Known about the structure:
Layout: E1 4-8, E2 18-22, H1 27-42, E3 46-51, H2 53-66, E4 77-81, H3 106-114, H4 117-127, E5 134-138, H5 143-151, E6 155-159, H6 163-174, E7 188-189, E8 199-200, H7 215-226, E9 231-233, H8 237-251, E10 255-257, H9 268-272, H10 282-290, E11 297-301, H11 310-323, E12 327-331, H12 339-351, E13 356-360, H13 365-369, E14 374-379, H14 383-392, E15 396-398, H15 405-415, E16 419-421, H16 441-452, H17 456-475, H18 481-492
Parallel strand pairs: 2-3, 2-5, 3-4, 5-6, 6-9, 9-10, 11-12, 11-14, 12-13, 14-15, 15-16
Antiparallel strand pairs: 1-4, 7-8
Helix pairs in contact: 4-5, 6-8, 11-12, 11-16, 14-17
The structure holds uridine-5'-diphosphate.
Amino acid sequence: CRASSDEMGAGAGGAEAHFVFVPLMFQGHLIPTVDAALMLAAHGALASVVVTPYYAGRVRRTVELAMRRLSAGSPGVRVVELPLDCAGVGLPDEADDIDKIPQGLGKNYFRALALQREPLERHLRAGAQPYPTCIVGDFCLPWTQELAASLGVPRVVFFSMCAFCVLCQHNVERFNSYAGVADDGVPVVVPDLGEKRIEVTRAQAPGFFAFPGWEDYAEAVERSVAEADGVVMNTFSEMEQEFVAGYSAARGMKVWTIGPVSLYHRHTVTLTARGQTTAIDADECLRWLDDKDPNSVVYVSFGSIVHTDPKQVVELGLGLESSGHPFIWVIKNDELYGEAVRQFLKELEARVAGRGLLVRGWAPQVLILSHPAAGAFVTHCGWNSMLEAVTAGLPVVTWPHFSDQFLNEKMAVELLRIGVSVGVSEPLIFQVKKKDIVVGRAVVEKAVRSIMDGGEDAEQRRKKARALADEATATLQEGGSSYSNLLDLINSFKIVVT
Ligand code: UDP
């Protein structure tokens, strides 16, 4: 089991800080990790990103294109390729691609990741010059804490989530808020949020890895966060300062907010290479958008994991059609649908030709959101998507499916006031479902219209979203908090020459 690493950019010469990022290879974790590595490189640090062979190809392409923007003096970003021992944990070799992990074998995948600790440590001891100065481990990979301890370097936790979400989750856990609450659907008030009154149910915020049989893993995750030397988050303080401060105080550790990391990419070529190869040609997509009025197009996507239920596809499609607004709808794994749904989509496409664009597969999301024609985002509230909407100054229709997405929805609707909810109040995937939930076409139409048809509330939401976008841009410029945090992070973990 050998690791290999290639270096891109001007070379590590002179770098005083070397951050080794160990991401979870789910797109919602990997994409912001790579962006964060690029951000640190742009500010003078060397960053390495450790990935398995399947993902190394993708990450290399993104990094190669994105690094053309780095100055000649930048130490650059290294891609460290580390094989995944699938066979050793009873997984087929193809499970290196997370979409191909057989159902019920998720735990084996996490075990295979943990087995990377020793080969990675050997590689970093022998091959990494300069020696790492900080391990940036995804919060889902508790073994990165032991890796750092063994190497004798600090470890910070990487959260591709917002401070509001992790603070709410931490508070309901440390204050035992669900104790004595028999039903998962009964709301409790999140404790210790200062003036803010936020209610959440156990179904919406059960805790990370709160699946039967994962108790030990969940405990290890919690322990490894508690023992870390700090936290790095893809968010920005100007948007949620009290929650950043609250989480830092509750954990007793420093929190570096360095987002929105997607702002590293400002050009079509690197935006198109972000994540994976797109199912639609970027120029074709831009030409389609160029034809539309400013703020007129509704972008609809549920991220990289959700595969929408067939009944829901039909209702969503009909709702978008009857809203009357132009839309781009991203449909993941279209090939898995039966003939009836595929036929429905073909007919819908014909009826809305010129007004509705269906992308079957991966879309250049940030490229679309940042086009002037984009007017709203119907989102599953994955944190990256939410932050990308904020960065683009777009109001959102919120449609959470699982994990932190319910808290992110509360952030958008109740706190930032840029969102309208479709009203889903319990998980649609991963957790045990009590009932089949299908959001009807009329609800979809109403939510889209309430964002797009104008009126005072809609105007307020749009204004708020634009103001947040200005703050998101400013935070990464000199004087902004994310800009200062990037420099402070590098200063905090550079080699001390005595
Ligand atoms: N994404 C994309 N094109 C797609 C689907 C997703 O570029 O067709 C990107 C999106 O911009 C975001 C990430 O994938 O950066 C998805 O992360 P998020 O946290 O929103 O949701 P998840 O996929 O983790 O559910």
